[in-house]
Each structure stands twice: as C-alpha cells, then as structure tokens.
C-alpha cells in the first residue's frame, strides 16, 4: 500500500521473536501537528506490539473521528484499520470482535469521541467486556474542530479562547472502574517507560482493557491555564511504574524482594508493579476508586495500572461462542439444509 | 331479514381486551380452518399496550384463496364492552353478532338488520371453573367452541390443535377441551347451526392452494429462517415492535440448528445492543470483518441507523437490515402497519446515497429474499434493506412450503484471500478492475504483508489512501453509481401476473397496476373484481430497488398506471419517477395509510372512481377511500 | 509569449501549508482589493487537518462583479513544495507564477508559456527576523507586499488593515509592515511592475456594486446575526465543520447584544451538547416551551437528527436548523463544499415526513432567511431547515449591507395565552379551526386549568388524546399535508432575473435554468457567457421548499430546463419532479460535485455540449465536465 | 381535556395550602397492567405535589418511550406533558429547562429508556446539573416490548422466558453519584412512606435530583427468579426512612434528639432522615458510594436518600441566565435594532 512507509530493512536492525523489526510495525507518516501527544502514543503502540512480538496482520485497528482517531493510520501499516464514525467505534469493535475472536483489537479514540458523543457506547462496551485494548488519547479538548472543551476538560481549565470550563470533567478511568472494566489504567503520552508496558499488558489481557492517556494538544490546549498542557501534566503527575513480561519470555530483570507486585495475566504474561507507596492491591476495585478520587481531589494525575482482573469473562465466553471464528464457518457448518427445512415446514401445518 | 350466505367465503372478526389470552384462542380458530384445507388469513389488530386495551383479530376465509383483507365484517364476536358500539356498527347488513350475554345487550346496540347470538360466556366460566385466571382465559375458548358449531369447524381438529399447543402442560388440555365443548353444546342447543355462512371441507377451493402443501407462518419467522439458511452468524438488534420477533425466531432456530456438534458451543452470536445506532454499528463491524451479519428494526430505528448506513454505503461494507415497517412518522402507531419507509430507506443518510431494497410479499419471499440479501450485500459490498411490514411480519400467512436447494453456495462476493493476494500483481481496494463498479476487498488478518488497508467514511483514492482531491472523489462516487447500475440485473426482477380475462371490456386505454409487498394480494383481488366490471388491468409486482428495466418497459407499454401502496405520500411512485425518469401524468396513486392493511374493496373503489371521473389522467391521487377498521 | 492581460479581472491563487498563518495574510490581500472598491471573491480551500497539509486560497477579481468561481488561475503564488507540480500545471497559458526562490526551481517545473517570479521568501525572513515563528508567519506577508507591487494594490490600505488586524497587539504591526515593504521593494527592484493583469481603483466596475456600500462577510456570521435579530434565545449544538462558526459568531454577538442591562446576566443560552441527537433534542424541548431555539450542523449531524426531526414534524414543535452542507456521503470531505443534503433534509426521518427548506444564496440572505426561519417555524409549528453550504458559510462574500426594519414584529404563530384560553369555548390542540392545517398551541404553565395537553410522537385525535383509530390518524396526517400546502404561499418565492440581451439568438426552443444557493452566481455568469454565443436562457432561483407555484409556471413556460446543482444525483431535480409533478424529459441536470464550488465555465460547458448534442431533450445529465481544482 | 378525569370536587375533600384537593393532581386513568409498580409511582408523584402545594400547571412532565414513560399521562392532568422519543428525554428536558427557568420539571423514564439507549444523555444531563426531578421506574426489563433484559437487570436474574442474564446490571444511583449528581436517592414503588417524601425533597431541591425507583413489572418480571419481583424486592429491602417538610411549613412532628439528621434545602424545605444504623453523613459522596456498593455486594437493596448537596450550582447559574425566563423576553429585549446593525456593517467594510 502506497501509504505505508517503504520500509527498507536495515541488516543490523534488532528483530523480535517473530523476526520482525520495529519498522514492520510502522504506519504512514503522521499528519498531526508537530509535537502532538498522539504521535507519542502511536509510537508506544508500535513499540509495544514489536516488543510483545505480535504478528502485525493479526491486529485490527479501530477508531472513531478526531485527530486521535486518525492515529491508527500512523502505526501498524500491515494491519487492517477502520476509521468509523464519530463516537460509535465501540459498537463497530464489538461486531468485529464477535465476527473473528482470533484477532487482537486495538481501539483508539479521543475524549470527545468517547466521553461526549460516544459515552453511551463506551459504557456498554465495558459492560460487555469485549476483548480489546481501548485507548483514549485524552487532551481535554476537541482538537480536530479547533479546540472546544470536551466532557473530560477539567473544571476551571481555561480554553485557548480564554473561557474557564464551568463543568466538572468526566473521569473516564473511574467510570470504567465503576462499570466493571477488567483492566483499567491511566498514563501520559510523554511517559514512554510506563505507557509501553501498559499497552503490552492490555494487549495480553483477555477482556476489555482500558487506558486513559493524557495526550496534550499542542495547538489548542498546551497554553498556561490548560490543565492538560505538557507542563501542567508533568507538574501534577504521580506515576506508578511497571514492567510487562509477555508469555513465553523468561524474566530477565531481577526485582528486589518486596519492591514489586506481580500479576499474571490470563495468557501467562506477567506484569510487575513497582511499589511507590501510593500503590495498593491491584485487584481491589474500591481501593482503585479511592486512589483515583483522592488524587483527583488533590489535583494530581495518578497514572499506572489501577485495576486488573486477569480472569474476567469476556464477551466470547459470555456468548459461549464456538472456538472457530464465526467469519470462517463454511456453508456446511451454517446451513441446515433441505431436510431440516422440511421438518420446519411440517411444524407449520 | 336477508342473511349473508357463503360457503368458505366470509370474514369473522373478534373484539377482545388485550392481555386476556384471546390471541391464542383466536389463532386456534384460524389454524383449525387452515387444517381443514380452506384458505384463511388471520390478522391481529392489537394496541401498543400490554394489558386492558381493545384488540381485534380478523379472520378471512376465502375459497378463491385471497389472502389480503376484503373489507367489512360478516360475523363479529365481541367480548369487549368498551368497543361494542363500534363493533356492532361495523357488521355488514345481514351479518351476525356473537356476544357475552351474561349482561343483557343494551337497547342502542340492537340493529334489526343483523342476527344476534348471545352466549353467557362469563357466567358459564364462573360456574364451571374455579381458578380466576382460567375463568378469564377459557371464555375465549368457549366462544371458539360455539363458532365450531355455528360455522361447522371439524371438532377433532380443534382438539388436536389444543394438545399440540399444550405439549408439556398437559393438565391444561382437559379444561380447554371442556370449554370448547361447553361452547359447542350451547350453540347447538340454542342456535340453528350451522349458519348460512359456513365452512365446508373439500368444498370448492382454489386449486393452487389444494395442490401444494401449504404452511401457515408469519414473515418475521420466515426472515429469521432465511438468516439461518443464508449463513448469518451475527445478529445485533434493539427491540422494537414489529421487528422484535425476527431476532426472537432467529435465536430459537439458531439454538436448534447452529450448535457446534463437537463442543456444544454456538456458531452464532446474538447481541441485544443498547440502541439502534449500536446495533447497526455492530453489524457494520462484523460485516467488515467478513461475517454475515444483520439487524432488524422498524421506522424509528431506521432513522437512528441512517448515519451508519451512509458509512456502510461509502466505505462499502456489507450490511443486511430487515425493516419491518409500522405506521410513522415518529412513534406513530407502533402496532399498525404501513409501507412508509420507502424513501427513507432508499436514500438513507446525508449526501448522495442509494441503497438496495427488497420487497417481499409473502413469508416464502421473506425467507428467500433474506438469503438473497446476504448474497447481494456481499456481492455489492453495501447495505441491503429488506422492506417487510407489520402485516406481513407479524401475521400468519398461508404460504407454499419453504424450499431449499442444497446445491446453494453463498456468494461471498469479491474477497481476496492470502492465496489470491499472492497471485495479484497490484491490488488497490478501490480499483475497478472488472469495470462493474465492484472492487476487490480483503479481510483483516488474511495476509502477513499484503492487502492491509484502512477503511474509512472519508474520501480516498483507488489505493484506499485518504484523499481530498476532487478527481479522486468524483472517480469514486461515479464508480458507486456504476455499481448500483450493475445491481439492477442481480436483484429480484419484478413479477408480472397472468392477465385476467375480461368479458365485455370497456374502452379505457391500456391500464396497468404497480404494487409491492403486502399490497399485492388485495391488489390482485381488486383487479379481478374490476375485471368483472369490464376493466382490464395488467399488473406488475415490484420486488426490488434499483428497478429492473422491465419496470420501465411495463410503464411504457401502458397509458395509465396505478401505483398501489400503503403510505400517504405515494413514496414508491416518487421513487419510480426519480429513478425511471417517468413523467407524473402516467402514474396515479392508490393509497391506504390508515394503519390497517389495505383492502381489495378500497383499491377497487379508488380505481373505479378515478376511471369514472374523466379526465383522470394526471390526477396524482385517486379519490381516497380510506378503510379505517 | 502572449501574457494574460486584464484590469480588475483575473484569478489569483495561493498554495500554502496549513497552520502556517497563510490564511490571514491571504485574507489581507482580498480585503485590500475590497477596500479599493473592486469586486473580489476569496475562497479558502483547506484540508480536514490542523497543521502541515496543503491548503489553497483563491481570489477572484471581477469588474463585472461576478462572485462565483470562474475556473482557471491567472496568477499562482506557490509556497508549498508538496503541491508545486500541480500548482504550476494549473496556471493558464500566459499566466504568472510566484514562488519562494530560496531554493532554485526544479527543471521539470519550468513551463515556457507562463512567467515566473522567484522571491527568496525564506532567505529574506531568516535574514530580517529573529523569532522562528515570525520567520514563518511573515513569509506570507512578504509575498503580499510583492503582489501589492505586481498587481498595483494601494499600499496605505494594506497598512490600515494591518493596524486593524493587530488592535491590541500593536508591537506586531511594525514587523508586519516591514515584511510588506520588503516584498514590495523586492518586486519593484526585480520585476517590471505592475503586470498586464492589475488592479485599478475607480476603474470600470459594475455599477450595482459601486452604488451600495458593500460589506465583506461570510454566511455563517450572517446566519448568527439573523438568529440574534430573529430573537433566538437558545442555541444547542455540537461542533462540526463547516457549521461551527455559526454558533461561535452567535456567541460573540450575543455576548455584546444580549446582556441584560440591569443585571448583566444573559438573555440567551448556548449549550454545547454531547452530540447532534442531544442538540436537536434540546432545541425541540426549548421550542416546545416557547423559546426560539436553533442548532447548526452539517451532513453527519443531519443524519443523526433525523429521528428528532420526525418527532418535531409529527408533534408539531417549532425547530430551526442551519445545515451548512459539506461533501458527503458519510464523513466524505469535511472541508469541501456540496449541495447534497437536499433530499435527506426535505424528507428527513421515516414515515411520511416533509420539512420546510430555505436556500440562501448570499450572506444577506443567510441573515434574512434565518430571521424568517424562526417566523416560519413558529407559524407552522414544524422544523425549518436553512440549507447553506461551506462555500457560502465559511468564505467571505461581497454583499450589500445587512438591513433591518425596526418595525419588524416576530410572528409567534398561533399560541393561546391565558387570556385567549379563557376566551375560547372548546379548545383542542389539533383542531383545524381555521382550515389552513395550522392549529392553536399552548405553552406549559400558561393557565391554571385550561390548555394543558400531552405532546407526543404517537398518533392522537384532535383533542390530543392518544388514539390508534385509523380515522384519527388519517385526519391528522392529511391536515399536516394541508399545513404544508399553506406554507407554499409563506416561504420565500423563487426569484427571476432580468433576461439577458442576446444579439444573434440561435434557434433552441425556450430555455430555462433553475438553481439555488451558491450555484446562483456562477449560473448567472454562465448564462451571460452563453448569451454572447447566442443562447438565450431565462433563469429562476429557487429559494425555498415547498415550492411556490411560480416554479411550476416557469417550468411550463419553457421547453427545456437546466437544473444546476452541486451534487451527484441531481437531488433538487428529483425534488421538483416529486413535488411539482414534472416529467423528466424537461429537466436536464448540470452538476458539479467535486467538492470545490462549481464554476461558470463548467456550467457553460455542460449546457453548450448538451445543446450541441442533438437530440439532448431528455438527457438526464448534461456532459459532465468536473472542475476539480 | 377529555382525557383528564372529570374531577367532581367533593365538598369535604381536604385541600392544600393553595386550596387544591388531591384530585386536582390526578391524571388520566392508567392503561398499565393491573398491579404495575409504575402506577404506585404515579400516585406518589400526585400526592407529593399535592402535599407540597405545588401549582399543577407550573410543573412540566417529560418522558421518553416505554410503559414507564407513559406514566406522565396518569398524573397531573393540569400540567403540560411531553412524551418524546426513546432514551432522549434528557436533552428535551434540558432545552425546556433553559427556555423557562420558572417551571418545575419532572422527568419520568424507565431502565431501558435511561440505562440502555439513554445512557449517554443521562450522564450529560447529570453533568449539567439541570434543575429537575428525574425518576427512573426501574423494573429491570423492557416492559413495553414484552420483557427483554435491560442494562440494569441484575447478573443472574432469570427472565420470564427462562434465561439468566449474563451481564452485570448497571447501578444508576452509583453512576449518578460518580458523575456528580447533587441529589441521589433510591426507593421502591411499594414504599409510599419513603417515596413520597423523597419526591417532595427532589422537587424542592435546586439542581438535578435523581430517584431510582424499583418498580416491579407484574407481567414480565414478577416471577420467581427475577430479582426485581415484589417478593424479591421486599425481601432484600434496606429502607432508610425520612420525612420532608416543605418551605413555609412549620415542623409538626417532634423528633427525639439524635434520632434524625436534618438537611435544609435551598428553598428552605427541610428533610429529616431517621437514623437506622446503616446510614451515614448525607453530604459525603464516597460514603454514599461505599454504602451502595457494599449493599449491592450483599445483594441488598438500599433505599432512601443517598446523597444531597443543597447548594450545588444548577445549569441556570452555570449559564448565568437572566432571571426573566428566556421564553418571555420581548422583541425589545431580544432584537438589537437597525442602529446596532449599521455598526456591524461598518465593521465589515
Ligand atoms: C457526527 C459527527 N459530529 C461531529 C463531527 C465533527 N468532529 C470531528 S472530530 C470531533 C471531536 C474530536 O475530539 P476528540 O475525540 O477529543 O479528538 P481530538 O481531535 O481531540 O484528538 C468532532 C466534533 C463529526 N465528524 N461527526
Ligand atoms: C428508537 C426506538 N427504539 C426502540 C423502541 C421500542 N421500545 C419502546 S419502549 C422500549 C423499552 C422500554 O423499556 P423501559 O424504558 O425499561 O420501560 P418499561 O416499559 O420497562 O417501563 C423499547 C425498546 C422505540 N420506541 N424507539
Ligand atoms: S490539533 Fe491538537 S490534537 Fe489535533 S493534531 Fe494538532 S495537536 Fe494534535
Ligand atoms: S408490562 Fe410491565 S411495566 Fe408494562 S405496564 Fe405491564 S406491568 Fe407495567
Ligand atoms: Mg480530544
Ligand atoms: Mg423497564
């Protein structure tokens, strides 16, 4: 495809377990503003998939509409992507997921796309525990339509045209927690060290994995007064670091006893959470909720993995789907044939 | 007083209160007649409410096999005090009126041109049955028993039907049989049975019905079976009358026919979405991913789906939608029928969009066309909307049995798998390689490094690269038009009907009638009525949009054409003018939009009036005689 | 080489990268010409992106006062390496090409039939200015300075404009002025100025323009002012290009003109909704409650609003919607213009629905018609949709000044207050007392025990009681049709244009042209071009739906009519055939749907080709010459 | 209006402060199933408005679509009502509220209407703190479409056709709490003593007042196995009783010291909460959240007033609306006139 960077494979480029180089996970050249937080997220997704050795073509990318929703064009050029309509990606992802349970799904959205027009679908996506990674590039504004406040804009945050937002911002991570999401995290586009392992963990998780990523809009929300600017975010960041070791990979780094909390994911991957003092038991929803709420009250941005239920039941299980993907079933598996129809006719006489 | 006579030819109507179990009893009545091999067509006219409001059930018996509504009532069974006045009034002179005589009939309800049969239903049931719920339910069965005597229904058939109905709940059979007998006995003892209108098994009945072993089923069940046989694996929906039973039936059959023998797991997914936008979104996602997916809805849902329908049209994703139409606009009359979503469906969504529509007229066609809808959707990579309606979808229709050709192969359309991709030199998602406007698509996950592309609702070039260049946009939307042209030859062709013999034909110029869906049966009947009067009218039944050229030909071969449909604005007529480039003077609307299915009498009357009123040539709408019962 | 000549008559186009501040510099250029009293029409052709993609700005200068696009480019200013190749190619033979010569021009970009002017913009700015942002921004100002010399713009005017522009940020004035002078000086020193194409103040200019004191404004701002003057108090919206600036402007003016003097509080409410469904819901709620409320959106929003539009139609609630159309279907080309929501708007929602549409062609009409929209919505208790488009809404148009008659009184329609209710004997919400299909409504809270009723989207009788009776339903929807009929006499009438003199008229039969909105200016120009060639074409500009009968008359008075519009499917033509009962053979489409506004040349070419190709009478679409620049 | 019960005013019927009898607050005869919980809610609303002496015609009733949404026809026949479209009543109510700030607004919805199709609008309605009383008649099913599960149906609750719901039910009260609702309550249609004062309090509250009312569907969700049946609800009920004394009314009953917690509403009305042991400080969101969550965990239905912020800023304040209702402004107040327009023209030259 012309729009995929021609990737000249440098002989000495490191390869992953599948023999892919990181450039095999590249997408098209970004058309976002220079410095846009979203580009860092694209890079983190690319790196995470490379490091976790996921076959690029076995991933499907979905998004809504917005600068953030353009992102899927800028990573994983070997993957199919679907840039759907504004705020309705959750339903498209749900349909795609039941149609083929064997692919991995990454949904990328924005705060407008998810918290405004998409709120209803977002909540029902969580409720169904669709097996996917859902990333919100949260810049607290509508970038593509030139900077209006979104539903996640903090109370009092000053927009570029100088108005202070009079409404309280919706905290998507808390909402996801309350609605029963099985993997809830928050991060910052500028914190590669934390974001990459989070994405790797999310991709390894079975069920709905939500990552709310603060991703500054350099053009409309990076000024003094905006609570989502690079400066304000860095200043208020409380990051809980972690590592993710995917399945089939031996643990290289040695952690000093008691300094980490390890969680094993359904597929065998292990997430190591580094103790910071601010942290708590990762499998306790209410503790997570408390942590988020108190951080918010203090005007702090708590980032890291908030909650994880490695054994939640995803939609495929809830629907008791056959192991063979629905989109691969043959006529013989689908069509009962004339004899059965005769008996149906019989029953209608 | 002259009483209405007729063997195997009359209309019975039941007036009940909803939530009192009348529907199943009345259905028992219709089914019994069906089992006697006599053409019957029942219609449930119910309120948008769960309990306590008036509901009617109309059963037409027609030896000729007319399944549309005739109009008028020959025998009324009224067990609803709220509506008794209008029910009495609605009986044809010389007709019959059965009522619960536990309370005496009020004076003002007495007509001297109809015959009354009072049966103390309440009293009888209070006497014979203890349980309150039974006392209420069995009232309905008692009058069925009485009708068995009055109309000459074969009693054993009723009993069989009861035991079928209560399989599993056997202890309910005896009280029901008892109730039947109570009614039967009361009637034979108190009335002269049978009436001049009556049933007669083996009496003269249209051959085409006797021949094939007909079934009795509703269109929604048939559509659901079509989805099963058409290979649908994903159903996403949001409940709405009158479409709900499509997915209910799909679930029922899927649980029987789609369980993986090895694991006992499901080879299908049914998702009750949070609303219609989501339902359509799920179908789009599944279709994009290569599964056959569908949803079912009605008017309000169609409106909510329009943004996604536009996406599917422009991003070229297969989608199947069953629109079971009800009376609009807005919430309208949720439990009344209409054919009023034609324009909204054909042009759903902003910008230049057109969608493929199918118009089934029978349960059999609901089945066949649903299967076909999946083939067409994947062949043309676009939404296909099957336009059913409440009358067809929720009522039981006598129909030839469903047939299936085991050699059928799904048409998955132009999809390149890994092998094909390796064999292809240069591939572009929107390259019109074959010149038919249809391009080759690929499915996610198919190939390690070929065929990946980005699906979007925005403009792109032939290689699927985002583009705002005018040339790319024009080239793309012109191709979509070309694709729509190609579809004309693949969708179901319109069906002509053998012309009706006319004895002393009047001079009228060449007359034609166009119609679709549930307007067909009454239209054929009306045409035969008018033939008796010397009017010769050729007919063509439209079965799909875009229109096949034979429609144009039909129109050109006639001087005046009646377009018979069930909406206010003559939507099909408009669609024909738009797409076939037909002048208005040729097309005259024959309309009924009262919510109750159009009757043969209304159609005949409107055409007759129009033909008499000269010059009628360019009248848009024939005199409107709305049948509002 | 023959160079293009022309005083006050040429097309200049700028090729830039978006997000580099070029728009304001280019606007400076257009505004300066406007201040010189010379007819000018600028067009911003920008991408759906915030920074880094190609963007163009086209400025047409026309002594005759043609404001539509002419087609072609006489002078190109290219400061975007990405597009230089296509930009060079797009210049007319004999034209001029200005570029940044900091890097030498590549060989393959050299044409021998156009004149090049290299200006080392980057180099000059690097040298003169320290700040990086300034270095980028002022590049644009430098080439404006050069154009001042090349095209003879009055320098003082540019300076004045700069100081207006930077009121408050005075320290920015001097570097800007310096940049202007740098460009001016470079041009005078290195090129022979002015060019054969040039400006001349007081040169011959269409009188109708010199006379009235024109203003330069865009349609969205005008619509916003219309909402202020029309008394709108509630604006609920969801951001979407190209409609966003309607509400932005409404907010700006409301903050100035709608503050309660006593308390300093607001006499207006603006709510940014969570999506378009909610935006329309809020407007419906406010309209139901007696406030003048509106929303603005574009295609995708229109699709999402269709369920609510159906409710407002059927429940009879006043609603004003400004649809600033962009290129569909689906997301389409968000920053490109089209007139492709005509059918989607006219018949929005399922069931039998029709909506009142207004088609403004100038900012002045955007203002007037928005005011009128509120009167019509309340008079007819129904949605009124003003169909603007990106070209009209977001570009600056030269227009006669807005006028206001202080004696204007809002038409609040048939609303009964407490006094009126006390005076009324029997009142029923849906009683057609006056026979015009419009009934009397009441507002919540008006009267302690009269006039309360239940508004609903379901069927009701004349007393607003829920009803599923066919008679009630038919009576109600027939009245809605009657109401729509009544509207025909109240909506803006179509406007004829004084016929153009034709010297040696060709034999063609009586030709007519129909068009609306932004197709008007280029259509008039094309008609004059064709007049030169001996083709005499009468014109009528459609301004509203439902259509006034004078449209029917115009059609009947002509043998062949061109319907000029900017969509693929000839939607207005279809609407005319549906509603006016006009045969297709009479109506020939002239279309452009490339996303860039239709040009006079395209229109003339399509009509010319069609007239030459005999027999052209029933051709649906004239030969398509798409202008795709 | 024919559909209002002809109310013959019995001479000895008690009247309220305005001289209205309770029958002045009647609506049309209900067409719901005999025994439907919704009818009890209608009665409670009628009584509450009567007892609080609110002028019936100064109340506007709004609803979506559903059996529950039919309710407004069955109370307050002297009030205007708007039965809008399914799930979108919140937006209609928002528009109505800004158009006329002087009326009182009652929104009645169902669990399908609010938690399924209406979820997005519901959350944004809360966020805007629209000044209204919002009642969800929560029967855990779609009544009008014959008994499908809704998004609030409890996990494992068995539907009439015998399927156990595999999804977790959404707890609307918790959601309202998290999203910042200023008045959050839950009740039971069968608990008149609690429901009436709650509605009176809600009507007196300035801002968004939410009451989630368990309201059994006798036809489709009153069987054994349904967690919303009358029996199941009564069995699991933990009711926190209360009284509401409207403004300008002296407190008749004397409460023993320490047995009640009194809260004064913005308009001067006072709510007395009776201590039960299970209760907590009414102005503490997180305590309320904990109480709801733990009750849910124990399978108990906690009813009563959960949270109240009497001084929250409602939408009229946020928008800084003039005191005169927008729908009453005259031409002179709305139309700037020709002179101003001339200056506008001037600025465009
Ligand atoms: C139905 C619809 N309404 C409105 C729009 C216009 N629109 C495009 S993107 C966007 C908001 C984007 O905000 P967000 O999701 O936060 O993405 P960001 O650009 O900030 O990354 C809007 C309102 C649209 N494309 N479709
Ligand atoms: C857009 C739309 N979709 C679907 C429907 C069909 N419908 C009517 S009521 C209803 C659900 C009602 O459930 P709920 O809100 O819980 O009310 P209840 O009947 O249970 O009181 C549905 C799906 C509709 N009227 N409109
Ligand atoms: S506008 Fe903001 S969000 Fe959009 S690309 Fe630019 S920086 Fe990123
Ligand atoms: S179906 Fe259920 S919710 Fe509806 S009226 Fe009957 S009992 Fe009430
Ligand atoms: Mg954003
Ligand atoms: Mg419910």
Could you walk me through the main structural features you see in this protein, from its secondary elements to its overall organization?
The complex is a heterotetramer, with 2 copies of chain A (349 residues) and 2 copies of chain B (629 residues). Helices cover 30% and strands 19% of the residues of chain A. Chain A has helices at residues 37-51, 67-70, 89-99, 111-116, 119-128, 172-178, 192-204, 230-236, 285-297, 315-318, 331-334, 337-347, and strands at residues 59-63, 80-83, 104-110, 132-138, 141-142, 148-149, 183-188, 208-214, 237-239, 242-245, 260-264, 270-274, 301-308. Chain A has 12 helices and 13 strands. Chain A is of the alpha/beta class and 349 residues long. Chain A is globular. Chain A has an 8-stranded mixed beta sheet with strand order 2-1-3-4-8-7-13-9, with helices on both faces. Chain A has a 3-stranded antiparallel beta sheet with strand order 10-12-11. A two-stranded antiparallel ribbon of chain A has the order 5-6. The model of chain B is unreliable at 615-620 (pLDDT under 50). In chain B, strand 14 (356-358), helix 13 (363-380) and strand 15 (383-389) form a beta-alpha-beta unit. Chain B starts with 5 loop residues before the first strand and ends in a 17-residue tail after the last helix. In chain B, helix 1 (22-35) packs parallel to helix 4 (132-151). Chain B is globular. In chain B, strands 11-10-12-13-15-14-23 form a 7-stranded mixed beta sheet, with helices on both faces. In chain B, strands 3-4-2-5-6-7 form a 6-stranded mixed beta sheet. Chain B is α/β, with parallel strands linked by helices and 629 residues long. At the A-B interface, strand 2, helix 3, helix 5, helix 11 and helix 12 of A face strand 9, helix 8, strand 11, helix 10 and helix 11 of B. Strand 2 of chain A pairs parallel with strand 19 (454-456) of chain B, so a sheet runs across the interface. The complex binds thiamine diphosphate (2 copies), iron/sulfur cluster (2 copies) and magnesium ion (2 copies). One magnesium ion is lined by residues 68, 110-112, 139, 141-143, 150 of chain D.
């Amino acid at each position: 495809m012309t729009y995929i960077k021609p990737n000249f494979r440098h002989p000495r480029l490191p390869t992953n377990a599948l023999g892919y180089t990181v450039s095999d996970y590249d997408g098209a050249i970004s058309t976002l503003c220079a410095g846009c937080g979203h580009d860092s997220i694209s890079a983190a997704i690319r790196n995470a998939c490379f490091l976790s050795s996921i076959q690029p073509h076995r991933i499907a990318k979905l998004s809504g509409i917005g600068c953030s929703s353009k992102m899927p064009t800028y990573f994983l050029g070997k993957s199919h992507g679907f840039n759907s309509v504004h705020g309705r990606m959750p339903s498209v992802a749900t349909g795609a997921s039941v149609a083929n349970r064997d692919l991995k799904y990454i949904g990328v959205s924005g705060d407008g796309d998810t918290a405004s027009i998409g709120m209803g679908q977002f909540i029902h996506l969580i409720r169904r525990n669709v097996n996917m990674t859902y990333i919100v590039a949260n810049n607290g504004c509508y970038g593509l339509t030139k900077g209006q406040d979104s539903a996640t804009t903090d109370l009092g945050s000053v927009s570029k045209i100088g108005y202070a937002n009079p409404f309280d911002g919706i905290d998507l991570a808390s909402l996801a927690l309350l609605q029963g999401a099985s993997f809830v995290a928050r991060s910052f586009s500028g914190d590669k060290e934390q974001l990459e392992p989070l994405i790797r963990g999310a991709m390894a998780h079975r069920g709905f994995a939500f990552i709310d990523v603060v991703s500054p809009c350099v053009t409309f929300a990076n000024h003094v007064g905006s609570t989502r600017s690079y400066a304000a975010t860095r200043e208020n960041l409380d990051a809980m670091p972690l590592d993710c070791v995917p399945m089939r990979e031996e643990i290289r780094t040695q952690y000093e006893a008691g300094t980490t909390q390890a969680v094993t994911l359904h597929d065998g991957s292990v997430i190591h959470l580094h103790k910071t003092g601010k942290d708590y038991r990762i499998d306790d929803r209410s503790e997570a909720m408390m942590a988020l709420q108190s951080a918010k009250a203090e005007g702090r941005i708590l980032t890291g993995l908030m909650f994880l239920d490695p054994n939640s039941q995803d939609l495929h299980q809830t629907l008791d789907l056959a192991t063979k993907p629905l989109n691969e079933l043959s006529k013989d598996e689908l069509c009962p044939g004339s004899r059965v129809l005769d008996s149906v006719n019989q029953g209608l006489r | 007083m002259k009483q209405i006579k007729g063997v195997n030819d009359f209309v019975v109507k039941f007036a009940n209160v909803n939530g009192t179990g009348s529907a199943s009893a009345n259905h028992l009545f219709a089914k019994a007649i069906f089992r006697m091999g006599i053409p019957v067509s029942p219609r449930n006219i119910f309120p948008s409410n769960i309990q306590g409001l008036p509901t009617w059930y109309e059963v037409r018996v027609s030896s000729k096999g007319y399944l549309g509504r005739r109009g008028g009532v020959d025998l009324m069974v009224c067990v609803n005090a709220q509506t008794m006045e209008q029910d009495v009034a609605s009986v044809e002179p010389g007709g019959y009126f059965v009522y619960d005589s536990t309370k005496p009939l009020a004076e003002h309800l007495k007509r001297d041109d109809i015959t009354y049969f009072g049966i103390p239903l309440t009293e009888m049931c209070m006497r014979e049955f203890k349980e309150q719920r039974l006392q209420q339910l069995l009232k309905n069965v008692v009058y069925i028993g009485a009708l068995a005597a009055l109309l000459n229904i074969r009693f054993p058939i009723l009993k069989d039907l009861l035991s079928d109905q209560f399989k599993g709940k056997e202890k309910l059979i005896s009280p029901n049989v008892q109730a039947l007998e109570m009614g039967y006995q009361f009637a034979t003892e108190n009335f002269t049975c049978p009436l001049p209108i009556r049933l007669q098994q083996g009496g003269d009945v249209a051959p085409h019905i006797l021949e094939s072993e007909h079934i009795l089923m509703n269109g929604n069940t048939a559509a659901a079976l079509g989805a099963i046989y058409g290979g649908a694996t994903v159903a996403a929906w949001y409940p709405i009358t009158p479409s709900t039973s499509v997915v209910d039936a799909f679930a029922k059959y899927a649980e029987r026919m789609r369980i993986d023998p090895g694991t006992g797991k499901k080879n299908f997914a049914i998702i009750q979405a949070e609303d219609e936008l989501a339902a359509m979104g799920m179908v789009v996602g599944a279709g994009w991913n290569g599964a056959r997916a569908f949803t079912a809805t009605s008017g309000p849902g169609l409106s909510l789906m329009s943004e996604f329908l536009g996406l599917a049209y422009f991003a070229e994703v297969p989608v199947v939608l069953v629109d079971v139409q009800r009376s609009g606009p807005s919430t309208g009359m949720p439990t009344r029928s209409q054919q009023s979503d034609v324009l909204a469906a054909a042009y759903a969504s902003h910008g230049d969009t057109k969608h493929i529509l199918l118009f089934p007229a029978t349960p059999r066609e609901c089945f066949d066309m649903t299967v076909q809808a999946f083939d067409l959707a994947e062949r043309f990579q676009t939404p296909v909307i099957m336009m059913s309606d409440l009358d067809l979808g929720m009522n039981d229709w006598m129909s030839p049995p469903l047939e299936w050709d085991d050699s059928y192969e799904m048409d998955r359309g132009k999809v390149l798998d890994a092998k094909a991709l390796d064999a292809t030199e240069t591939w572009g998602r929107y390259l019109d390689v074959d010149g038919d406007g249809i391009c080759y698509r690929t499915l996610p996950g198919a190939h390690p490094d070929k065929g990946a592309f980005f699906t979007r609702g925005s403009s792109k070039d032939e290689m699927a690269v985002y583009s705002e260049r005018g040339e790319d946009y024009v080239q793309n939307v012109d191709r979509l038009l070309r694709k729509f042209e190609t579809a004309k030859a693949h969708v179901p062709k319109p069906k002509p009907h053998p012309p009706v013999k006319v004895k002393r034909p009047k001079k009228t110029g060449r007359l034609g009638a166009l119609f679709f869906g549930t307007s067909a049966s009454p239209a054929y009947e009306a045409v035969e009525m008018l033939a008796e009067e010397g009017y010769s009218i050729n007919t063509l039944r439209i079965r799909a949009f875009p229109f096949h050229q034979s429609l144009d030909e039909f129109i050109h071969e006639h001087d005046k054409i009646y377009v018979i449909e069930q909406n206010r604005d003559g939507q099909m007529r408009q669609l024909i003018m738009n797409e076939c480039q037909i002048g208005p003077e040729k097309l005259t609307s024959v309309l009924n939009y009262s919510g109750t299915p159009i009757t043969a009498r209304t159609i005949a009357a409107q055409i007759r009036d129009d033909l008499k009123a000269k010059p009628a040539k360019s009248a848009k709408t024939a005199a409107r005689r709305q049948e509002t019962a």
